Fold each of these.
Amino acid sequence: MNNKKYNNFICQIINEDLNKNKNLSLRTRFPPEPNGHLHIGHAKSICLNFELAHLYNGKCNLRFDDTNPLKENIKYINSIKYDISWLGYKWNGSVRYSSDYFFKLYQYAKQLIYKGLAYVDNLTKEQIREYRGTLNTPGINSPYRNRTIEENIKLFKKMKNGEYAEGEACLRAKIDMSSSSIIMRDPVLYRIRFMPHHQTKNIWCIYPTYDFAHCLSDSLEKITHSLCTLEFQENKFLYNWILYNTNVEYHPKQYEFSRLNLEFSILSKRKLKILIDQNIIQGWNDPRIPTISGLRRKGYTASAIKYFCQKIGITKQNTLIEYSLLEHCIRKELNQTAIRSMAILEPIKITLYNLDENHKEIFVVPNHPNNPDMGTHEIIFTNIIYIERSDFKEKYETGYKRLSIGKEIRLRYAYIIQATKIEKDEFNNIINITCYCDTTSLGKKPKNKKNPAVIHWISIHNTLPVEFRLYDQLFDIKNPEQQKNFLSYINPKSLIKKHGFIEKTLATMIQQYIFNQNNQLCFQFERIGYFCIDYIDSQKNYLVFNRTVNLRDLWNLKKNKNTNN
Ligand code: ATP
Ligand code: MG
C-alpha cells in the first residue's frame, strides 16, 4: 500500500470502516454520463476511485449513468472507455449501465407507490417548478398528490405504456413539500421521453431520474463508498431516503469531495459542447481544452495527468487550481523523456561566406544531455543555414545577446559566427544574413573573449518543412466557468500556426509515430519548447507539431510581470 500517495480524508473513512469490519471488501465506481468526452476533472474522480480500489485490494466498476437518452451517444461511451483505459485503469468485470437495471428500477418505483410514497403527477414542468417554493417559502402540494395507490399504479403503467405524451405525467416521491431541503420536496423519479435509448432501444418511454437511478444502481452493485462531488451533498438526503424506503438489501454510503476547477478552463461538458458547436474549437480533442483527448493530442501523457491528480489531492475545499501546476507535471516528465533536437519556427537564411559551397560536416549529437541511453542523431553543417528570425536584430542594442551586425554568436554544437551584412527584398524584409564562420572555434572557448550566446540552427540541406501549432490559453480570464457570457472572453490568439523546419535526419524516427496516439514521440526543440506530433492532422508528407508546453513557466513570469507593473 502506497499510503503516501493516497492519504486523504476518504482513506481515513475507509480505514475506520475497515477497523469496524475486517471483511469489508472495498467497491467504488466511476459513473460518467455519456453526454460528452471526459476532462481533467473526471480524471480527478477516476484516479480517486481506481486508486482507492487498488490501494485497498478492492474493485472499481465503470457504470454509465445513462438515464437521459436525449443527450447521450454511443460515440461518447466509446471515447470514455478509451480514455479510462489510456489512463491505465481497468474496471471490474464488464462495463455496466444504469440502463441494465431499468426493469428493477421500475419494480422499486412500484414498491414506493404501494407504500404510498410515490404518486403520478400531472402538473406541467413549469407548474412543478412553481409549486416547489424557494429557500424562504415552503412548496405547495400538487392537487394530484393524494391519488390512491391503485390509481397511481394504474397511471404509472399508463406512463410506461406510452399512453401519455411527454411532459403530461411524471412519477414523484411523496416526501415533504415544506422540507428545508428543496430536493426533498417531492422530487421527480420518472419522466416520459419518447426517445430510443442507445442500450435499451425502444423498450422504454419512461426514464428514471439521476437521483432515483444512482443510489439504487450503487446498491445493486454493492458499492461500499459512493464518491461524488460536493454539489451532490443535498442529494444525499434523497439518496438515503430512496434506499431506506425501497428496502434494498445493501445500503452504500455517499461521500463528497470538491470538484476540480482549473484556471483559464471550462470543465462543463455542456459548455464545452457550445464551444464545439459554435466552431470556436475543432472538437472534443482540440488541444486547447482540458479534455483527456485534448490533453493527449497536445502531448500530455497518462502518467503526467495522474501525477497532477495526485498533487491536487482530495479535499472538501473548492479552489481554483493554477494552470501552471498542470504544466509543471508534464514538463517535469518531458524533461526526462523528450528527444532534444533543433527546429526553426520562423526561418531566416544565413550564408557563411568563408565556407565552400560544398562544405559539409556531420555532427553526432546526443538525444538527451543526461541520458546516453536515449542515443544520438546526426546533424548536417553546411555553408547555408537557417536560424530563427527572432535571433537576429539588424541594429545591436545594449544587452541584446543574439546575432546582430558585427556581433558574434555560437551555433549550437558548431562554430562561432559573426554577422557582416544583410540583404533585403523590395519589401524591406531581410532575406539573407552574410556571416563569417570562425572555423577554429569548434568546441573551443574563444581566446580573451567571453563565450557568446548559443542559438539553434538547421542546415539548408537538413530541413524538413513542417507546421507548428503554438497554443495559448483559450480564455483571457482566469475563471471563465464563473462568467455567464464566457464566450466573450475567448483569446483570439489561442492558436498560432507557424511554418518552419525540423531536422530532416529525424524523419525515419518520426515516421513510425505519426499516426500513433498510444505511443507518442515527444521532442524538446531546443530553446522553443516541448512538442509532439499531431496524430490527427499529420500526414506522411506533412507533419504537424503541437506545442505541449513551454520550456519555462511563462504564465507565472507573465503574471509576475503584470503585478510588478
Ligand atoms: P460536467 O459538468 O462536466 O458535465 P458531470 O458531473 O455532469 O460533469 P458526469 O459524467 O456526471 O459529469 O461525471 C462523472 C463523475 O465525474 C461524477 O462522479 C462527477 O462527480 C465527477 N466529476 C465531474 N466533473 C468533475 C470535476 N470537475 N472534478 C472532479 N470530479 C468531477
Ligand atoms: Mg452529471
Amino acid sequence: MLSSLLEKYRMNRIRLVKADITQLEIDAIVNAANNSLLGGGGVDGAIHKAAGFALLRECKSLNGCATGEAKITKGYNLPAKHVIHTVGPVYRNHTVAEAHHLLSMAYKNSLQLAKKHKLKTVAFPNISTGVYGFPLEEAASVAIATVLEFIENNQTPQQVIFCFYEEDNFKLYEHLLNSESN
Ligand code: ADP
C-alpha cells in the first residue's frame, strides 16, 4: 500500500501540508463536523468563524448529517469555494472495527461528493483525531488506505491534500512516506 502511496505522492495526487485549513485557496476543504452541522470546537469552529454567518444559515437547512456521511455547502468568506461537511466517529462510542469503518466512510463519502461536483482539489483535516479521540496512527492508516483506493479508481478529485495543524500529525504522515522511500 505504501509504495502505491509514494507513487501518488510523487505524481502530486496526494500532498501533505502543514497549515490552517481555513486559509487554503482550493475547490473544497473538508470540515470535521458534528451530527448537528451547527458548528462546534476545533477545526469546525475555525471553519465557521472564517466562513461567516452565511455558512451556518446554509448548514441549518441541511438537517444534520449522520456519522460517516457528508454534505456540501458553499465556502462563503473562505478562500475555498466549497466546504464538505463530514462527521467522523467518536472513537470510544464504537468497537474498533466500527470506528474504522465509519472513519473510512467519512473520507469516502467526502471524496464522492467532490467527484460529483467535479472538484479538482480537496483538503482534509485529520478527522476524528481531536476531541473525537481516534488514535493518530490508526486514523492515518484508515485515511491513507481510503484516499488511495479512491484516487486509484477515480480521476476526480485530481489532488487530495492532507492538511495538518499540528507538527506531530504532519510528521507521522511524512514518516510513513519517507520510511517507504528509504
Ligand atoms: P474531531 O472532533 O473530528 O476530532 P477536531 O476539530 O477536534 O475534530 O480535530 C481534528 C483535527 O483538526 C485535529 O488534528 C486538530 O488539531 C485539527 N485542526 C484544528 N483546527 C484546525 C485548522 N484550523 N486547520 C487544520 N486542522 C485543524
Amino acid sequence: MMKEQLQKIKEQASAEIAALSDTKALDDLRVKFLGKKGELTAILKQMGQLSAEERPVMGQLANDVRTALENAINEKASALRAAITEQRLKTEAVDVTMPGKKRSIGVRHPLNIVLDDLKAIFRGMGYTVVDGPEVEEVKYVFDMLNTDEGHPAREKSDTFYISDTTLLRTQTSSVQIRTMLKEKPPIAIISPGRVYRPDAVDGTHSPIFHQCEGLVIDKNITFGDLKGTLENFAKSLYGNDVKLRFRPHHFPYTEPSAEVDLSCFKCGGKGCSLCKGEGWIEMLGSGVVHPQVLKNCGIDPDEYSGFAFGIGLERIAMMRYNIDDMRLLYENDARFLSQFRC
Ligand code: DAH
C-alpha cells in the first residue's frame, strides 16, 4: 500500500518536473513533494503504523524516492539555468563591429567667446571683473548717474519697472555707482552682464542683451587715458590696423561724452554691406566721469577723475563673426552654434 503510494509520488513528480519550464514552478514543486508539509513527508509520517519487518524496507524505498526526486529536481534546475544563459547570450550579444555612439562636445557660445576675450584684454591692463544685480534700484541706474527725473531713458516705455524704486537694469552703468560706493580709488573695473529694455525682437533688437561696463578712477585721469585704453582694447580684439573715431555725444554721467566707432574690419573703411557703406561701425559709449557722479559717491572731483565706457557685446560678436541676425545668438540652434568650434 505504502509502496504504491511512494511509486505514485515518484511518477507524478517526475512527470511534473518534465513538464515545467521555469524556476519558480520548480521551487514550488520541490516544496510540494519534499517540503516539511510535502507529500513524501506525509507518507513517511505513517511509518509508525508499519510492522518491524516492513519498516526498514519502506524506509529504504522512501529514501530512494527522495534521492531520485532530489536528483531530478537538481538536474532540471541546471537545465533551466543553462537555458536562461543560452537565451541571454543570444539576446544580449554585443556586436563589437557595430560603430560606437558619437558624443559631441559642446562649444562656447559666441557671446562667451567675445566676453572671455574682453575679460582677458582688460585683465591684461590691470582691471578687475565685477558683477552687479540685474534687478536694480532706480537710484543706481538713473539718479546717482546724474540722470534727472525727466530724462527719456527713464520712461516707462523704455524700461521694465518692478516698482517705483526698482527695475530691470537698462544699462550696466549702475555697477559704476555700486563700485564707487564700495571701493576707494584707484578703481579699474569692468562689469559684463545682461540688461533689459522693452524692445520688440527683430534682427538687431532683443529685450535682453549684454553690455560690458568699464570704469577707471584715479588721480589725473584724462580723456587721453580713455582714448589710449580703448585703442589698445580695439587693437587687441581686431588687430593693429583698426582705427577709432570719437564722435561727440551726450550721456548724463560723462562730460565730455563720446560715441566710439571702429573702422569696418571687413572693408577696412572703404564702405561695404557690413558697415552699410559708412566705413565705420558704432561700438560703444564713453566719456570722462561727470564730477557730479563722483560727488554722489563720496569721491572728491578735485582730487580724482576718471573715465567710463559701455560696450554692447552682441554687436561685437555679430561684427566679428559676420552674423546678420541677432536672434541667432539666442535660439541655441546647434547647427549655428557648432560653427564656433575652435
Ligand atoms: N550706458 C550707455 C548705454 O547703455 C553706454 C555708456 C555710455 C556707458 C557712456 C558708459 C559711458 O559708462 O560712459 O548706451
Amino acid sequence: MDNKKDTLIELKHVKKVFKDGVTIIEDLNLEIKKGEFVTLLGPSGCGKTTILRMIGGFEKISAGELLLNGKDISNLPPNERPINTVFQKYALFPHLNVYDNIAFGLKIKGADKKTQDEKVKKVLEMVDLEGFEKRSISTLSGGQQQRIAIARAIVNEPEVLLLDESLSALDAKMRKEMQIELKEMHKKLGITFIFVTHDQEEALTMSDKVVVMSDGEIQQIGTPEDIYNEPKNLFVADFIGESNIFKGKMVGKKKVQFDGAVFECVDDYPVDTVIDAVVRPEDVEITEAGKGRIQGEVIACDFKGIFYVTAVKTDRAEIEIHNLKSFKIGEKVGLDLAPDSIHIIPYDTTINHYEGTLESYIVGKGFLVKFEDFELSDVPAARIFANCTEKEEGTSLLDAAGKEISWEGRKVVASFKPEDAKLSDDAEAGFVAGDINSFIFMDNYYHYRVRSESEEEYIVNDEYLWNSGDHVSISVPLEKFQFELS
Ligand code: ADP
Ligand code: MG
C-alpha cells in the first residue's frame, strides 16, 4: 500500500523562516496520499496554518522541497496549483449572491454561462443547498455560509482541498453536523482533504490520518486509533484525550511498577527501564476497597451526561476515571488495570540526563552543581526551584510561601537536547570531554555518542564530521540545560 504512486503531496526537509528571522519550522517531512483525509492537529501557534499556506502557495518555503505528484511546485503561484482553500474566515463576497460567489472562479477561468450554471447547481446539491442561487450571503446562517465557502472551493474541481479551522466559527451542534457532512463530502468527491484543527476530538472523528504537531515539529503521524492508543511520546499522550500518566519502571518481562504496585502490561522493555505509563480514564476499573492493586479514596465524582468522572486519590497520585457508576466522596475504593490498558512510553535514559548535587549557592549568581564528570556554575536558583526568592545576604533561598528552602545536598537532574550541544577539539572548551565512541550520518547532521573517562555517555547532534576515537569536548549553553529536582 505504501506505494509512491499513491503519494500526492510531499514536503521534504521543509524549513520556514519568516522575514523577522524567526524559524517556525526547522525540518518538516510529510507525505500525503491521494484521496486521504489528513488532519494537522496541534496547539495554537505550532505552525499548522503556515504549513497549509505553503501548500496552497500563499507562503514560500525557505528551504527543502514541496512536491505535487512528484513535481516541485514551490514556485507555482496559488492559482496554478490544483489546490483550493477554505479559510478560517469564510471570505465570501458579501455584496454578491450565492451563485456569483460560487461562480466567481469559473468566470475568471472563462467558463461559459451554461457550464457555470451546471457546475454551480451540482456543487449546491453537494453541500445540500439546492435552489439557494439567488440568496444573498447576509441572509445565510453561519453553517450555510460555511457550506457556500466549501462549494466555492470545490467548484473548480481541485485535487486538494485545504481547510483551515473551517468549523471553529460554528456552534457546537452545527459543528458536529458539519463534521459528518464534510466526511461525506470527502467520500463523494474522492479528493484529498487537508484539514487543520486544534481540536483533538474533531481530528479523531474526521480523519484517515492525523499529524500531531507541536512547535513546528511533527510528534506523531498515524490513524486516529494509533495516536489515541499508542501515543509515541508524552506530548501526544497528554494532548490527545484525557490520560493518567504515571512515572515508574520495568520490573520484569512485561511487568511494570508504578503507583506502588506491579502490573502486567503488553509492552516489553528491559528491567529497570524508567518509563511513563499512560492510562486512559475509561480503562481504570473500580473495585471494592481492599480488592484491586491500588487503594484510594474518592475525592470527586461528577456526572458528565453519559458517564461519571471520578477522581481517586491514592498514596502517590490522583487518578481520573470515567465510568457509568457514581461514587460518594470519601468512599474507599480499589482500582485495577488490565494489561492492555497500560501503554508504556520508555523514558530514554540514554539521552543526556545526569544526576548531580547542589553544592553551594551564591546570592545574585546561583548554584554550583556538581556531577560525576563535570560541574555547572552560576545556575540561577529559579531554574531549579520555581517561584523562589533570594534572601538579601548569605546563602538562603525562600519558597513562594516565604519558607526557607533546604537545598544543601539536594539531587538534581540536568539534561540537554543532542541538537543543543556542539563538539570542539579543544578539550577545555566545553563542560565535559570524552572520546567519540560511534556516530551515525543522519542526512543533514551526524549523531555522535561521546564517552567520558568515567564511561558516561553523551549524545550530540553536530553538523561537522568527526571520527571515532577523536578526543572532543562538549559545549551546551547554560540556558539550554533543563533542571529537575530528583
Ligand atoms: P497555528 O496555525 O498552528 O496556530 P501559525 O502557523 O499560524 O500557527 O503560526 C506559527 C507561528 O508562526 C506563530 O508563532 C506565529 O506567530 C508565527 N507567524 C505566523 N505568520 C507569521 C508571519 N507572517 N511573520 C512572522 N511570524 C509569523
Ligand atoms: Mg492557524
